[in-house]
Amino acid sequence: MIHLLLRCMLLMTAFALTTFGLMQWQAASFDTSDVWPFARDWHLHPLHYIALGVVMIPLSLWEIFLLEPHEKHDEN
Q1: Is the separation of the CB atoms in 16 and 45 below 8 Å?
Q2: Backbone angles phi, psi at 32, to 5 degrees
Q3: Cβ atoms 35, 47 nearer than 8 A
Q4: Taking a C-beta distance cutoff of 8 angstroms, is the pair 46, 18 a contact?
Q5: Does a structural domain hold residue 68?
């Protein structure tokens, strides 16, 4: 049960990163000038948060769906 909770928290974090990135990118007027981290400052562009969140979503969903048959098997 704790594994499922951790996977769901990972999924929640992925959606939060994606939402945060979209909100910050909208606040920056969808500017893509500083996407490359070596451009001016060492800060993450909102697209980096979006990319990280989008990459984490399928992985965490896969883990949740992969754990579901194992939990049903353990209950029997």
Answers
A1: no
A2: -115, 20
A3: yes
A4: no
A5: yes
Q: What is the pTM of this model?
A: 0.78
Residue 35 lies in a domain: no
Between 10 and 67, whose confidence is greater? 10
> What does the chain come to in residues?
76
As a dihedral over the C-alpha atoms of residue 37, residue 41, residue 42, residue 46, rounded to 10 degrees, the angle is -60
CA–CA separation, 19 and 32 (whole Å): 17
Say if 69 falls within a structural domain. Answer: yes
* Tokens describing residue 30: 């969808």
C-alpha distance across the termini of the chain, in Å: 15
* 32 vs 69, higher pLDDT: 32
